[in-house]
Amino acid sequence: MKNTILALGFILIFSCTKTGINISTNTVPITLDSLKITGRTDTLIISKSFKYSITGYYSDKSTKDLSDSINITSDKTIVTINGKNIIGAQSGKSNFSISYSNFSLKDSLYVSEIEEVKNIDTYLSTPVNGSKIIVPIVVINYYATLNGIDIDTKRQPSFYNLDPITIEGLKSKTIDELKLTKYGIEEGSKFRGFNNSTSVPNVGIKVIKYYNVYEIKKVMSADKINYFADFNDMFNKLNIKDAVNNLGAKEVWFSLRPLSVEYPVIKTEKLSPENFQAGGPESNMSSPTSGDISNSWRIADDLPIYNKSYVVYTYNLHRSHAENIHNHGHQIESQLDFLDEGLFAKDERLFLNKFVGISNINYAGKPYGRNGMTHFPPNTKVDYDWNNRTIVKSDIEDWKPEGGIQKDIHNSKWMNIKYSYPSVSYKIDENDSQYKWIMFWFQTIPGSNNGIKYGNNTISNWWDLLYNWDDAVKNKKKLYE
Questions:
Q1: 373 confidence band (pLDDT: 50, 70, 90)
Q2: Would you list the domain boundaries of the chain?
Q3: Are residues 174 and 317 in contact, defined by beta-carbon separation less than 8 angstroms?
Q4: What does each C-alpha distance from 227 to 220, 300, 314 come to in angstroms?
């Protein structure tokens, strides 16, 4: 009797005879016949990681996952190879050689500089409850890198030094600052919320598109010493036209760590002029109805013009949410001043003279004793002096064009307010006088059903004018009705 058993590449033959058992061995080696890519991608985004799935096929019909055993090389430095992981570093096509034992495979993929984030942070994509005007927002963040892991600090350093940071670290900071920016605008749109806990927000922010970009074109800025992002090129690639015309986007929030010739890091690190990139104006409007009404050089073609108006804000990631809403403050001033201009005699303009408190005759144009503005609370004549303890008489809590009830006002009025901030990854400075003043000032802006009389007229909802700009301009609306 003979029994044959196949095991581990050996054929064992058992022979039974009267005198005993004879065993003979025939060796049949199992060999690797081929390699195959069983998991790949055509496109990799800068900063994203990818790992090939490689399967080995053997002579005995078995297979084995060799993904952790292969060697990978690339013909270009547009990717970073970290162990078996491939990380997008710069845009373009990269060819790969994948080898194991005596076998090799060839493959290629394209690295893209644009990432659309589909899973937008819930807080950013959800307008505050009860908001009357929903403002759709497109977010664009620029992260310069050479290796897909770290920020290239020669193009995006901090203000005083290089301040190394990973892309993921800066992304986390960006989301925190955007959340607090959103909060500042929504909370600030509660008309006289500082004295009325039931006041509802006039504005609700809703982020509808969220992009991270890792490479941008730049153009010379109007000052001829810095560079700005080429917004025409960027917006074309991201199809912002569709977001504005069809999705109703009213604002674009553009965040980055900018670099200007004014920054001390230029000298301390001996950075080259080609690195200069200041991002963009604090605010910049594109409008088919009014033209550019913004806190910028008001260049006609620096933004593409679509069927509807929109405003682009540049946020500086060296700084914080306080400076972000500061930018919005100046934009509000520009738009309200535009609607008001030319309607009144000297020192009688509703916004600048009666609301802000600027006198064209006294105080060299500095507001004093009324509502103030972004740079000036009503108790100071010095820019950025948001924490001034000087007491003045002001009707800021009961503003009426011809004068409301006057009260003693100083910094404690806005500094003592406690807010329910959204959750972020760091401890918020509860004593940030800029952030608190600007939110307080926003709350003095007349909102829905404000009931403020102006002669025989009623003060309009200024938030509605600001965020339904094309309607306001086409119908020649004023700050009163």
A1: very high
A2: 1-30, 32-112, 126-335
A3: yes
A4: 4, 17, 13
Tokens of 136: 């759709």
Other Cβ atoms less than 10 A from the Cβ of 163: the count is 14
* Contact between residue 112 and residue 119 where contact means Cβ atoms under 8 Å apart: no
**Distance (Å, whole) CA 4 – CA 2:** 7
Query: What beta strand segments (E) does 310-411 contain?
Result: 310-316, 392-394, 407-409
The string of pLDDT tens digits covering residues 205-218 is 999 999 999 999 99
Whether the per-residue pLDDT at 80 is higher than 60: the answer is: yes
How far apart, in Å, are the Cα atoms of 358 and each of 133, 335, 436? 29, 17, 22
- The residue with tokens 């890091």 is 265
Chain-centroid distance of CA 158 in Å reads 17
- The DSSP code for 265 is H
**244 contacts 307 by C-beta, under 8 angstroms:** yes
32-112 under CATH 2.60.40.1080, yes or no? yes
What residues are paired with 168 via a beta bridge? none
Q: With contact defined as beta carbons under 8 Å apart, do 114 and 45 qualify?
A: yes
| Axis-axis angle for helices 167-188, 433-442 (nearest 10) | 40
| Count of alpha carbons within 13 angstroms of residue 45, beta-carbon side | 10
